[in-house]
Amino acid sequence: MSIDLEYPDGKVVEHPNGVSGLEIAESIGPGLARAAVAVRVDDELLDLSRPINRSGKLAVITLADPDGLHILRHSCAHVLAQAVLDLYPGSTFAIGPAIEDGFYYDFKVKEPFTQEDLEAIQDRMEEIMAADQLFTRESVSTDEALEIFIDHPFKREIIANVDTSEVSEGEDVTLYRNDGFVDLCRGPHLPSTGRIPAVKLLRTSGAYWRGDQERDQLQRVYGTAWPSKKELDDFLVRQEEAEKRDHRKLGAELDLFSFPDELGSGLAVWHPKGGMLRKVIEDRSRDIHERYGFEFVYTPHLAKSDLWETSGHLGYYAENMYPSLDVDDEEGYIVKPMNCPGHILIYKSRPRSYRELPIRLSELGAVYRYEKSGVVHGLLRARGFTQDDSHTFCTEEQLDSELRMHLDFVITWLKDAGFSEFEADLSTQPEKSVGEQSRWDFSEKILAEVLESSGIPYQVAEGEGAFYGPKIDMHVKDAIGRRWQLSTIQLDFTLPERFELEYTSAANAAEQPYMIHCAKAGSLERFMGVLIEHHAGAFPMWMAPVQVTIVPVADRHIEYAGKVKAVLEDSGLRVEVDESGDTVGDKIRTAITQKHPAVIVVGDNDVDAGTVGLRLYGEDKDTRGVPVGEAISRLTEMAEKPAL
RNA sequence: GCCGGAGUAGCUCAGUGGUAGAGCAAUUCACUCGUAAUGAAUAGGCCAGGGGUUCGACUCCCCUCUCCGGCUCCA
Questions:
Q1: Which of the four pLDDT bands, split at 50, 70 and 90, describes residue A57?
Q2: Which of A36, A156, A533, A537 lies at a CB distance of 3.0 to 4.6 Å from A250, suitable for a disulfide?
Q3: Which bases of chain B are contacted by protein, using any atom under 7 A from a CB?
């Protein structure tokens, strides 16, 4: 097998497979080697900007490889920028990376893009692709680069910040050119614009330069690109499927909850079906908390503003809190954004001995946070929500085992809900924080150790911790691969200090306990939103608000349907009888649309024989003449909760 | 909060300055039906709210609210 190298000047050089990139570079001359950004091996791509793989062989990649996809998408971003600069003279461009599933590019333009603009840009991109322009790479000095991008301040800002310590003089900055377009870029790229198989612009939005809301707001154009037209189409279908799972849409369709305008943004009401689902989740939460040794407490939704002063929330969290409610001359009251201070007051209600520790207090605590108007998003980001919150007070020696227990608890809880893939973030000390540095270091270290030994994959999120301590945030992957943050385990040495918490040690000395804040579901609202999307509304039977729908064939079977309902309910099942005047087909259809796990049909034959017809969600076939007793045992088995 | 888009019947949507329409859902009647849509009739709207322009506004302009896509932020 040989490798054909294509160069921007059209030269094609043949090499045997297995030679190193360096050897190729030498054989064709150093100047060309740098210019030759990509080569082709049949339909595979190779990039000379990093030509050698681990075994010292040519690193050949295809578009289907993660690297290849990245190169494809990044090349698309260039073509996008080229199209925009062509079509909108006077506009300038900022950055345009490849991202998951696609790419974007940020521009500063006179007018925000419209849908028509997007179509015009896409058309121009198609023209550039049809022209099959070669991508060429070159290196220039910082000064040369600043001159080239004289009209593009964002590029000049990037150039000024490039780290030039590791490159040779005069080659500080690399550029990629195709046709008249030039962009600042490390590469690599496809050999030419004609190598883009399938690209589609998706949407536009505002985005801040450098992600900083104090700086310019740019116009971002998002697109997606794939190795083939078919994969692009598949992606678009997947997007549509994801839309069908949208918990806001399913919430209305399955009559679970709503967000009445009259209540205000981000405030939900739960309808009976959603209420039942929620009751099942709450019952489960209480059961498993009890199983893990937690005790239940209740705290009010309001507290004097002094309390929030002591806790530090007014200093560090004020922008997310609803302002103080002031009545006459009385001290103001604040609606709680967190449950911790309430639990702390319970701990503080009397002196504590080391023999009592750990003390684990839990509450399904409703909290209210003022979220900026643009961030509210269904159940996933509400202004009022309920945390399955707990606060564990323990000694330093108990921290390790307590943290392991909490992690185990969280994973068990998430697995029971149907999730199987987990990733953790270890969020470390933020800029605005309280407490001694040595204790921050200690806390971060112990969290890292616990995570390390758990075997759960994790990454460090620098500066993402709470103001009072570092935390482990647990993310789950849902059925279609999306990542959601749910649980959080937070280590806290600060609030015990601020509230002067103590326990008496074995040596009869006053010691300060540690606190572990933990929400297993995170918030019930977000958790249920994610559950809805994960299961696409077809919940595991133990969760389903309606587990069985009974369909009488004709009105004369309603009485028998009622009897079957009664015996099923005696076995703990949640059952509805469809007494509408619809046809059997209609009623079946309604039950399936509502994603009820089981449908029972009863007609003349069943009344006589004491049987039912049984049909399960997701199965097209039905089984007739099932004795009621057998139906009960099958259904109750299916509806069984995960073992505690 | 910022940039864009949108708000018409319970839902999905038509309606480009001359006083509002469809399908589904609902209600009623007929049909009483064996596994994904029986037929007919009826009812249903302060066209998100407020202000303005106009002889006249769902339609044009301004403000507010709410939602959607992102940015920023987050459970």
A1: very low
A2: A537
A3: 1-5, 11, 26-27, 29-38, 65-75
